[in-house]
């Protein structure tokens, strides 16, 4: 999929249009219409989930930035948009969450041992 970014576009478009599959979308949609949709996405912004991620990041950054402690750095919304294609281990994710939590003044409480 990384070598064929147009496939990523087809999946976004299929999800946006509620198509049951990319194969069905491509069978039912002309090359001209696919091109128009691609141009539309370039003009209007990403289709589907990524657009929601960007909007959520903008809202979170705005709330954080107006409520941050004096002297604390601003957060850029682009730093908050998930990077879905990047692999991150569970340990790395928890470390990043703890770091962000502590940077915002949160305290860490050790969880009691839980049975496996």
UniProtKB/TrEMBL annotation:
It comes from Allonocardiopsis opalescens. This is Uncharacterized protein DUF4035. Residues 30-106 form the Minor tail T domain. It comes from the Bacteria. It holds the Pfam family Phage_tail_T. The lineage of its organism: Bacteria, Bacillati, Actinomycetota, Actinomycetes, Streptosporangiales.
